[in-house]
Write a structure and sequence with these properties.
Two copies of one chain form a homodimer. The first copy, chain A, is α/β, with parallel strands linked by helices. Chain A has two domains: 14-171, Alpha/beta knot (3-Layer(aba) Sandwich); 188-255, Orthogonal Bundle (Helicase, Ruva Protein, domain 3). Chain A is built from ten helices and seven strands. Chain A has helices at 24-36, 53-59, 63-67, 75-78, 102-111, 131-134, 154-170, 188-204, 214-227, 231-253, and strands at residues 14-19, 42-45, 70-72, 82-88, 99-100, 117-122, 139-141. A seven-stranded parallel beta sheet of chain A has the order 3-2-1-6-4-7-5. In chain A, strand 1 (14-19), helix 1 (24-36) and strand 2 form a beta-alpha-beta unit. In chain A, helix 1 runs parallel beside helix 2, helix 1 (24-36) runs parallel beside helix 7 and helix 5 (102-111) crosses helix 7 (154-170).
C-alpha cells in the first residue's frame, strides 16, 4: 500500500501557508519537510525572495511541492476557501486565541470534515504573524520550546507540525513497521532446562569455589528471564555451556 | 519557573551524537534545534568540516551548545559512558534492532535512571549509520515519514526527536512514579569489554569448531544488548567466562 493509493491517510486538502518569508532557503526546506510527511500543498504570501535558487536547492527533490506552489499577495487570499485555519506562533501577542499544542492542532486539522479545505499558517522568521493575520485564525498552535530560546527555525517548525499531522493521520493505524520476523521466544519449560544446564555448568567449571550457589543462580535467573531469549539464542548459550563442560571434563580427566 | 531552576525537567545527561556529518550547516541547525527544546550536549564523531562558519551561522545564537561541543574520532568513544544508546535510522538495514517511534524512544530516554548518561545518535546525511555503529545501539528510532520520500534533513530529524524529548519531559513530571532503585546498568564501554571477553572465551573453549565466528557473535551481541545487563550481572557472567577459560587452559595444558 503506497501513499498514492491511500489518499485518505494523508489529507490532500491541508495546505501549509508561509507568510512573508525572508529566506528562500526556508521555503525549500519547508517544502522538503512537508513532503517527508506526505503533504504537498504550499502557499506563499508575499515571499521576499521568490523564485530563488535556494528554494530548489533546499527542497532536496520535493518537486511535486515546488511545482504546485501558489503565490498570493495576502493571507486573506491564501485561505479564502478554508474552513479551518490554525496559526503557528512562537508566542501569543495580545490576540486572545485558543492555544493548541502541535498534537492537538494536528488532530483538529485531521479531524475536520473530510472535504473541508484547512490551513496551517506560519509567519515571518523574525516577526511571526501580525495581529491582523492571527485574527484570521481559529486557534494558535504553539510548539513547546524552552523559555529563553523559544524560536524554532521556520522550516523546523513546519517539520514538527507536518510530523504531528502524519501521526494524526496514522492514529488508529499502527505507527510501527510490521515487527521484524523474529524467532519464537523460549517457553517456560525450555527456560527451566536452560537454568538446569547453567547450574550444572557452573558446578563443572568450579565457579562457586565453596560459596553457596543460591544467590548467583537467582541473579542469573533474573537476568536471563528479563532478557526474554528466543529459542535460537538459548541454543547458542547451551552450546557454550556444552563446550565449557567439555573443557572441564578434559581438564578433570587429566588429573589421573 | 525557568529551565534553570528546574533541572529535573530537562535531563542534562542526554547527549545528541552526530556521526560523520557532511554539511556543517546541519551541525549548526541541529544545535539550534536541540537548544529550543532545552538540550545542550552535542558530540560530533569525525565531522567532515568542523569548525566552520556555517556551524555558527545556522546555530542562530545557541552559544551554550556550540561552546560545549565535543569532537571525537569514533562512536565508541562518544558513548563509552552511556548506559542507553538509541540510533536514529531512516530504515532498518539488516541489523535486527528493536524499533521505536520517536515518542517511545523519547519516553525511554527520559525514563532511564536519572543519573544515567544516555545518547541519541544520528548518522551521515546520505548513508546514515553503519551497521557496526547500529550494533552499539540498544534500539533504533524511526521517524514515520512517507514511503518514497522518507529522508528528513538531519537537523530536522534532530528537531523532531528533541521536540518529542521535551514532550516526554513535560509529560513525565506529573504522571510517572519515581523509578525503582536498581543496580547501575553497564556502560557501552563495559559492554565492549564484555563482548571481547566473550569472543575470546568462545575461542578458548573451541566453540566455533571451524565455522565463521561472525554470525554467532552478532546474535550474542544482539541478545546481550537487549538484555541490558547491570554491572553486577556482567561481573557474574565474566566470572563464568574466566572459569570456562581456566578449564580450557587446564585441558589444553594436559595435552603435552
Amino acid at each position: 500500500m503506497t501513499e498514492k493509493t491511500s489518499p485518505s491517510l494523508t489529507r490532500s486538502n491541508i495546505r501549509f501557508v508561509l507568510v512573508r518569508t525572508s529566506h528562500p532557503g526556508n521555503i525549500g526546506a519547508a517544502a522538503r519537510a512537508m513532503r517527508t510527511m506526505g503533504y504537498a500543498r504550499l502557499v506563499l504570501v508575499a515571499p521576499l525572495h521568490y523564485p530563488h535558487d535556494d528554494v530548489i536547492a533546499l527542497a532536496a527533490g520535493a518537486d511535486d511541492v515546488l511545482e504546485n506552489i501558489v503565490v498570493v499577495p495576502d493571507l486573506a487570499t491564501a485561505i479564502a476557501d478554508c474552513r479551518l485555519v490554525l496559526g503557528c506562533t512562537a508566542r501569543q501577542r495580545g490576540v486572545p486565541l485558543p492555544e493548541l499544542s502541535p498534537r492537538d492542532g494536528a488532530e483538529r486539522l485531521h479531524q475536520a470534515p473530510p472535504d473541508d479545505e484547512v490551513a496551517l499558517v506560519f509567519g515571518n522568521e523574525r516577526s511571526g504573524l501580525e495581529n491582523e493575520e492571527l485574527m484570521r485564525c481559529h486557534a494558535a498552535v504553539h510548539i513547546p520550546s524552552v523559555p529563553g530560546f523559544s524560536s524554532l527555525n521556520l522550516a523546523q517548525a513546519v517539520q514538527v507540525l507536518a510530523y504531528e499531522l502524519r501521526l494524526a493521520a496514522l492514529h488508529g493505524v499502527s505507527l510501527l513497521p510490521p515487527p521484524l520476523k523474529s524467532d519464537p521466544l523460549a517457553t517456560a519449560a525450555e527456560m527451566e532446562y536452560f537454568f538446569g544446564h547453567l547450574a550444572q555448568t557452573l558446578i563443572d567449571i568450579d565457579f562457586h569455589k565453596g560459596r553457596a550457589a543460591t544467590t548467583i543462580e537467582r541473579r542469573l535467573r533474573r537476568f536471563f528471564q528479563r532478557a526474554e531469549p528466543e529459542q535460537r539464542e538459548l541454543r547458542i548459550l547451551r552450546g557454550i555451556f556444552d563446550d565449557a563442560q567439555r573443557m572441564a571434563r578434559l581438564a578433570g580427566s587429566k588429573k589421573e
